[in-house]
Amino acid sequence: MQNGQTLLDLNNDQQQIDQISQSISSGVQFSSPADDPYGWAESMNIQQSSREYTTIQSNISFATGWQDATSSALNQLSDLISQAQQLAVSAVSSTGSSNGAELATEVNSILQQALTVANTQYNNQYIFSGTMTGTAAISFDSSTGTTTPNGNSGTAGEINVRTGTNSGSSGNLTTINLTSQDAFFYTSGGNTTDVFHEIWNLGQEITAGNTTGISNSETALQDAFDHINNESTIVGSSLSELSTQKSAISSIQTNTQSELSNLQDTDVTTATTQLTQAQAAYEAALDVTDKLDSLNLASILTGSTS
Amino acid sequence: MAGGLGLTLDTAEQTLLNTQTELQVSSNNISNASNTWYALEVADQTDNPDVQTISGWIGAGASVTQITQVRNQYIEGQLMNANSDYSQYSELYSQLQAIQSAASDSGSTGITDALGTFFDSWDTLSQDPSDLSSQSAVYSAAQNLASTIQSTYSNLNEIATNDIPNAIQDTVTQANTLIDQIASLNTEIVQAQAEAGGKEANGLIDQRYQALDSLSQLIPVSFTTGANGMVTVTTNETGGPATIVSGGTGTHISTSSAITGGQFGGLLTAQTDLSGYMTDFNTFTASLVSQVNSLYTANGGSDVFSDTTGSEASTITASDTFLSGQSTEDLNSAATNISNLQNTEVTFSDGTKSTLQSYLSNIQEDIGNDTQTADTNSSYSQALQTQLQDQQQSVSGVSIDQEMVNIIQYQQIYEAAAKVVTTASTLMGTAISMVGSGAA
To answer: First vs last Cα of chain A: how many Å apart?
Structure first.
C-alpha cells in the first residue's frame, strides 16, 4: 500500500503551491530569513545603505542651501562695494561740500545694507557666525567704525556635515560655512581691515572732504572687492563639488534600488508559470489517488464501483 | 472410534470449528484495518496426529493451535528510529520558526530600523546642533533603539525561560507515563501468556507496540524482545545507551537527562541555538553602547547609553540629558563621528570585525540558516519515516482485499465441510437403520 507516501507527496505539492502563491501576492521572494538566509541578510544591508544615502542627500541639500545663501550674500556685498567705489569716484570729481553731504548719506546707506547682509540667516541660523549660529555674525560701532565678529572661527567655528560615506579612505565631511573672520576681514597695505570699516571710512573721508583719504579708500575698497570675489570663488567651487557628489550618490541610489529589487522581488511571470505547473501536477495526483481508492475488492464485490 | 464415518464426522466438525475461528480472525483483522498499531493476525493450523486404520495411517484434519501476529521487529526498530529523527527535526524547526519570529528584523522593521533612525537623527543634528527639535529627535531615537533591543531580547528570553522548558517538562511527563505503561504491559503480557498456556497475548502486544511507537517520537527508542516475551527498552544519551524499561520496571527520565534525539533532543538543540543568538544580541549591544559612548564623551559630556555587563541587551537604557551643556561645536563634532560609526568596522567581543549593521544582519542569517537546515532535515526524515511506515504496514497491516479473498475461501470451506457433515450423518443414519430394520 502506497497510501502514506502518496499522502506525503500530496502534502508537499500543496505546500509548494502555497509558497509560490505567497511569493506572488506579497511581491517578495522571501518572507522569512529561512527562505533565503543570505538574501535576507543582504537585503537588510542594502536597505540600510539606501537609507544612509537618502540622509546624506539631505545633508548635501542642506549644505547646498547654506552655501547658496553664502554665495548670494557675497554677491550682494560685491555689488555694494562697487557702488561705494563709484561714489568714491564721484566724490573726488566734485569737490563741492554741498554734494559731499549727499554722497556721505549714500555711503551710509550702502554701509547699512552691507551690515544687514553680514547677518544673513539660513534655516534660522546666522551663516557667518561659525558654530554660534544663534548670534548675529558681527557688531558694528558706528562711532569708531570697528567691526567685532561675534562668532567663532578656526576649527571650532566649523559646521561639518557628512556628504559621503566614510567607507573609503578619504574624509567624507564638508564644512558648510564661511566665518565672518574669513569672509569680511582681509589685509590691505600691510594692515588688517574689513569691508565694513572701509565703507564707513569712505563716508568719513567724504564728509571731511579729504581727497587723499578718499583716494586711499578707493584702493582699500578695491582690495575688499578682490577679497570678496576670492571668497566667492571658494564657495562656488564647493557648491560645484556638492553638485557632483549629489549626482554621484543619486546614481548609486538607483543602482542600490535595483540591486534590492533583483534580490527580493518576485519575478511574477516565472512564478505564475511555476504555480500553474504545480497546480496541474497536484490535480493530476489527486485524480490518480481518487481512482486508486475505488479499486478495491470490497467495492467491486458489492457492486459499488464507479 | 478408529477410522470410519465417526472420524470423518470428527474431522468435518473440526473443520467447521477451525473455519469459524479463521472467520473470527479475519473479522478482527478487518475491524482493525485502520489501526496502524494493529499487527495482522493469522490463524496457525497444525495437522492433527494421524490415526491408524485398517487401510493404514489416515490424516485426522487440522486444529488451529494459535493466532500469531505478523511482525517484523527489524522494520519496527528502523521505523522507531525514523520517528525519533523526524520528531527531533520537526520540533527543532518549529521552535526555530518561533525564535525567528521573535527576533524578526527585515531591515525595514526591528532593531535595524531603530538603529538607522538613530544614526539619521545625528546627521540631522549636525546641521543645527542647537535646534531643540533636532535634539529631541536624537533623544527619542536613542530611547527607541534601547527599547527595541530590550523588547527583542525579552521575546527571545520568554521562549528560553518559559516555552522551551515547559515543552521539555511536558515531553518528560509524557515519556515517563509511556515508560510506566510499557513496563506494566510487559508484566501483563507474561501473565496473560502464562494463563493462556504460552499463547501470545496479541492485543496486549499491540498496545505495547503503540506505547513504544508513541515513546519513540519523544525520545530515541531501541528495544529487544526477551525469550519471556518482555521487551527491554533503551534510549540514547550523550554517554551511551540508557535502559528505561527492563522487565516490569521502568526508569524515569528527567528534564536534565542528556538525551540525544526525539522531540526531547530537538528541544535541547533549540535551547542551545537560542542561547547562542541571545549571546549575540548581548555582544552587539555591548559594542553599540561602548562605541557610541566613547565617541560622544570624547568631546566631554556624559554617556548616551548605559547597560549592565553580561546582560547588555536586556538592560540597555538611553539617557535623556546627554546633550545638555554641550557646545555647538562639540555637538557637531560628536554628531558626525557617531553617524560615521555606521560604516566603521568594529571589533566585537566574540572576535568578529564588522559594522554594527552587518553584525545584526549576520544574526538573522544564522537564524535563517539554522531554521532552513532544520526544515530540510525534517522533510528528509519525514520522507524516510513515511517509507518505513508503508513498509511496516505492508508486513503487519491489514489488506482488505486479502481478507475478502480469505472470507470467500472460508465460506466455501465451511459449506463443503457442512456438506461432509450432512453426508456423513445421513450415511450413519443409513447404517443404523440397516442394523435396526434387521431386528425382528
So the answer is: 21
Over residues B203-249, the pLDDT tens digits come to 999 999 999 999 999 999 999 999 888 999 999 999 999 999 999 99
Nearest to B271 by CA among B398, B160, B416, B106: B160
- Kindly compute the dihedral angle of the four CA atoms of residues A48, A51, A52, A57, in this order, to the nearest 10 degrees: 160
- Contact list in B for residue A124 (CB cut-off 8 A) is 128
Report how many domains make up chain A: 2
CA atoms of B109 and B93, how far apart (whole Å): 24
In angstroms, what CA-CA distances link B377 with A7, A247, B221, B260, B371? 19, 49, 19, 16, 10
What is the DSSP annotation of B73-117? HHHHHHHHHHHHHHHHHHHHHHHHHHHHHHT---SSSSHHHHHHH
Considering CB atoms only, which of A43, A152, A172 is closest to B107?
A43
User: Other CB atoms closer than 10 Å to residue B49's CB: what's the count?
Assistant: 9
- Name chain B contacts of A52, Cβ cutoff 8 Å: 116, 119, 342-343
User: Do A52 and B394 count as a contact with CB atoms less than 8 A apart?
Assistant: no
The chain A residue lying nearest B117, using CA atoms, is A51
Contact criterion met (CB < 8 Å) for A166 and B343: yes
Cβ-Cβ contacts under 8 Å, B357 against chain A: 44-45, 48
Q: Identify whether residues A71 and A215 lie together within a single domain.
A: yes
Compute the Cα dihedral for B337, B338, B340, B341 and give only its sign.
positive
Considering only alpha carbons, which residue of chain A is nearest residue B129? A131
Q: Which residues of B touch A8 (CB under 8 A)?
A: 382-383, 386
> In angstroms, what separates the C-alpha of A125 from chain B's closest C-alpha?
8
| Domain spans of chain B, in order of start | 4-70+399-438, 76-177+264-388
Asked whether residue A203 carries a pLDDT value surpassing 80, the answer given is yes
Cα nearest neighbour of A53 on chain B: B120
Burial of B174 (0-12, 13-18, 19+ CB in 10 A): middle
Range of A22's domain?
A: 3-27+266-301
Q: Pick from A43, A131, A167: which is nearest to B343 by CB?
A: A167
Give the tens place of pLDDT for each residue, B368-389: 999 999 999 999 999 999 999 9
pTM to 2 decimal places: 0.89
CATH of the domain at A131: 1.20.1330.10
Do A180 and A154 touch, CB atoms closer than 8 A? no
- Please choose, from the candidates B55, B8, B24, the residue with its C-alpha nearest in 3D space to the C-alpha of residue B407: B24
Are residue A242 and residue A185 in the same domain, yes or no? yes
